[in-house]
């Protein structure tokens, strides 16, 4: 009996092994044929932009013989997963990445050079400029914009009304932002449920995404152009920190602000618990339908407008065997049909500026506003971005937490640690 | 009684087998057959342990990119270890954690084992209850505590305590998690040791008029020594390699106050893509662990002679 059982297992393993070989052959067969000839394309993306990726993949799979198989990976694990897969030679055919990590990946040679393919696109000059800049390394292009995620201020019109504020007038400066948050807190915060504002206080990426636009709006910078020298220990960054520091110290920002590691920082606004706070524009489409939300550009302490042009870029991995099929999908995602009928229809920001006003965006002035910010915003460039600013053990999180919750005297020393990380070889 | 007799019995059996082999075997083929018996294990050990180990050592001598050709850079990966303040801090933190957790874990596990060592009605229930947390995966347990103590939605979050908000609280909360998860398992190890102590020894002690405390310190503890040694080695090695609890539960925070050594290795490899540097740290940690375990075994075996 036992013998027969193990024989069955052995047979089973053999079949699986053969099937695996067969699968490999078909995949390779697709590479030599036409771009759309029934190839299975593997693709990875991170959870933050899952919804957009999934919609694009579904629409493509419905109309093409090629089939894209999407794997979604939790945000915290994305960098390690890419590193592990690259080291083992097991990258998928296509992978998206947070746009700020792209310079590092291209410098490591993880993406395939697509300069000649991009040059043939009729709309190549209208592709989101910040994403294209970060995807260019030593004058060669490696990535296309995949999804755009901009930081903007959301305010809750119902709470504003209850607090006696004008529900149609959002903040136009960071100081107004603080004043309005304070009013909401004072009028509605007694029961401990509602708070004036909120931010991810133990999350390096959150600080970058939500605080830096205020610096740019005020005409300042956070790094030099090469991304090798930090400027975060000077005004206007320090002024921005001071305003948020006061908001936390006075209890206007929710009590868990200091501990928020980033997994749940966008979860409080849709529950109707927050008056006004910085939010990712991609979340607008998934807000409760009956919630009245105002959207304002992030401003500096005394005015100006800017945004962090975040989101994902996408490229073909350097080790793929299905480059033509992969490009068929990539070029389709930035085409008119996918941009308008998939992305614009769901209130997403478009990867192309020539389509910014389209039949869907006109219906919602907030979407028009967000689209218009792409040109005003920035995407910072640094080869060592992730390990400096996003990594929870990186030097930036220490710096920002000291600036918001701690002792400003320590900032000079911590800033040298940021510099050191930016220039690490 | 049988337990006392069994080692001796085993040795007899061994001698018999050896003699039988002598009688049967042709002198020339014996070594060959021996190698054949050992071959499967040898293959597994070399494929799963020696080959990766050699690769790690080789990596630690190179600048190792994610894709492309590695480049020899001895001894850069080793000399820069002391330049990394995060790693230096993590060594001290991991040692501190190891000392605290080993002392507490041993005390709690011994207490639990003594509570449930004797057969009496209902004792099976308590043994199971104490051991049950050990059946939860450690990563899952870390997430469980993260959720339980979360100030926004956790059942224990309502209390005005920053469970992982300050460096000390984060360490204590983690110690709570590890005690909950591992005390039962260590209790089980000690329990096997306790039950191997023959009842006659206790009877003799009682006849001689020993007090409970004397019985514990003069009989139970000395006879439990090999078992305690095993538990200490498992606990110390495990604690020095701590990762899950700090990676998942505290995320190294707040302010890098709970970053363990393995977390730094992970960060160097997968966030900074410095595979060579991470390999060098791994080799150093491995060497330290081997030395420490050799030392421990010597010290703890000392009294057995």
UniProtKB/TrEMBL annotation, chain A:
The lineage of its organism: Bacteria, Bacillati, Actinomycetota, Actinomycetes, Streptosporangiales. InterPro entries: Bact_solute-bd_prot1, SBP. It comes from Planotetraspora kaengkrachanensis. Keywords: Signal. It comes from the Bacteria. PANTHER family: ARABINOSE-BINDING PROTEIN-RELATED (PTHR43649), DIACETYLCHITOBIOSE BINDING PROTEIN DASA (PTHR43649:SF12). This is Sugar ABC transporter substrate-binding protein. Residues 1-19 form the signal peptide. PROSITE patterns: PROKAR_LIPOPROTEIN.
TrEMBL record, chain B:
It is a multi-pass membrane protein. The keyword Heme does not apply. The keyword Transmembrane helix applies. InterPro entries: MetI-like, MetI-like_sf, UgpAE/MalFG_permease. Residues 91-296 form the ABC transmembrane type-1 domain. Keywords: Cell membrane, Membrane, Transmembrane, Transmembrane helix, Transport. It is found in: Cell membrane. Gene3D superfamilies: MetI-like. It comes from the Bacteria. It holds the Pfam family BPD_transp_1. The chain crosses the membrane at residues 34-61, 95-116, 128-149, 169-191, 228-249, 269-295. GO terms for biological process: transmembrane transport. One of its GO terms (cellular component) is plasma membrane. Belongs to the binding-protein-dependent transport system permease family. PANTHER family: BLL4140 PROTEIN, DIACETYLCHITOBIOSE UPTAKE SYSTEM PERMEASE PROTEIN DASB. This is Sugar ABC transporter permease.
């Amino acid at each position: 009996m036992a013998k027969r059982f193990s024989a069955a297992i052995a047979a089973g393993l053999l079949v699986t092994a053969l099937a695996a070989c067969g699968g490999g052959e078909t995949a390779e067969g697709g590479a030599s044929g036409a771009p759309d000839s029934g190839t299975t394309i593997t693709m990875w993306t991170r959870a933050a932009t899952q919804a957009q990726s999934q919609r694009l993949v579904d629409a493509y799979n419905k109309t093409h013989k090629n089939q894209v198989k999407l794997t979604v990976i939790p945000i915290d694990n994305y960098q390690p997963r890419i590193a592990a897969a690259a080291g083992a030679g097991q990258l998928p055919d296509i992978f998206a990445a947070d746009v700020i990590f792209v310079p590092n990946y291209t410098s490591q040679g993880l993406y395939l050079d697509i300069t000649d393919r991009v040059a043939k696109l009729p709309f190549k000059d209208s592709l989101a400029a910040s994403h294209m800049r970060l995807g260019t390394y030593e004058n060669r292009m490696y990535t296309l914009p995949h999804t755009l995620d901009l930081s903007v201020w959301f305010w809750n019109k119902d709470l504003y009304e209850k607090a006696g504020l004008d529900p149609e007038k959002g903040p136009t400066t960071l100081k107004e932002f603080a004043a309005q948050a304070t009013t909401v807190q004072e009028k509605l915060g007694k029961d401990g449920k509602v708070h004036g504002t909120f931010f991810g206080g133990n999350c390096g990426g959150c600080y970058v995404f939500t605080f830096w636009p205020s610096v740019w709006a005020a005409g300042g910078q956070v790094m030099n152009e090469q991304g090798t020298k930090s400027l975060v220990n000077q005004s206007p960054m320090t002024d921005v920190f001071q305003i948020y520091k006061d908001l936390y110290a006075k209890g206007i920002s929710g009590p868990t602000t200091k501990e928020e590691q980033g997994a749940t920082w966008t979860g409080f606004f849709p529950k109707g618990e927050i008056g006004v706070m910085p939010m990712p524009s991609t979340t607008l489409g998934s807000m409760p339908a009956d919630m009245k939300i105002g959207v304002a550009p992030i401003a500096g302490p005394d005015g100006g407008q800017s945004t962090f042009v975040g989101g994902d870029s996408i490229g073909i991995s350097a080790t793929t065997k299905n480059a033509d099929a992969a490009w068929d999908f990539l070029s389709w995602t930035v085409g008119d049909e996918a941009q308008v009928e998939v992305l614009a229809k769901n209130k997403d920001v478009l990867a192309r500026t020539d389509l910014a006003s389209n039949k869907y965006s006109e219906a919602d002035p907030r979407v028009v506003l967000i689209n218009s910010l792409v040109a005003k915003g920035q995407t910072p460039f640094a080869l060592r971005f992730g390990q400096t600013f996003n990594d929870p053990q990186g030097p930036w999180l220490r710096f920002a937490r000291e600036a918001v919750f701690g002792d400003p005297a320590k900032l000079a020393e911590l800033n040298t640690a940021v510099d050191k990380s930016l220039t690490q070889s | 009684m049988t337990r006392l007799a069994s080692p001796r019995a085993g040795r007899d059996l061994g001698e018999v087998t050896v003699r039988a082999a002598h009688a049967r075997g042709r002198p020339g083929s014996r070594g060959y057959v021996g190698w054949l018996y050992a071959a499967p294990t040898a293959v597994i050990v070399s494929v799963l342990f020696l080959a990766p180990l050699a690769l790690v050592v080789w990596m630690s001598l190179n600048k190792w990119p994610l894709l492309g050709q590695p480049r020899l850079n001895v001894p850069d990966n080793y000399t820069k270890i002391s330049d990394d303040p995060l790693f230096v801090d993590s060594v001290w933190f991991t040692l501190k954690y190891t000392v605290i957790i080993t002392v507490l874990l041993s005390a709690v596990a011994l207490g639990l084992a003594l509570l449930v060592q004797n057969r009496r009605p209902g004792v099976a229930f308590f043994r199971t209850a104490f051991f049950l947390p050990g059946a939860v995966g450690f990563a899952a347990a870390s997430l469980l505590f993260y959720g339980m103590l979360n100030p926004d939605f956790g059942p224990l979050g309502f209390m005005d305590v920053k469970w992982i908000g300050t460096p000390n609280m984060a360490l204590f909360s983690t110690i709570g998690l590890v005690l909950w998860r591992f005390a039962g398992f260590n209790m089980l190890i000690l329990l096997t040791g306790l039950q191997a102590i023959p009842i006659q020894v206790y009877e003799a002690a009682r006849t001689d008029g020993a007090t409970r405390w004397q019985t514990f310190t003069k009989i139970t503890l000395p006879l439990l020594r090999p078992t305690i040694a095993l538990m200490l080695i498992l606990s110390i090695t495990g604690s020095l390699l701590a990762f899950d609890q700090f990676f998942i539960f505290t995320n190294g925070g707040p302010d890098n106050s709970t970053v363990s050594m393995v977390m730094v290795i992970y960060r160097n490899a997968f966030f900074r893509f410095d595979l060579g540097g991470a390999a060098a740290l791994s080799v150093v940690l491995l060497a330290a662990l081997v030395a420490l375990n050799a030392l421990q075994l010597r010290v703890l075996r000392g009294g057995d002679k």
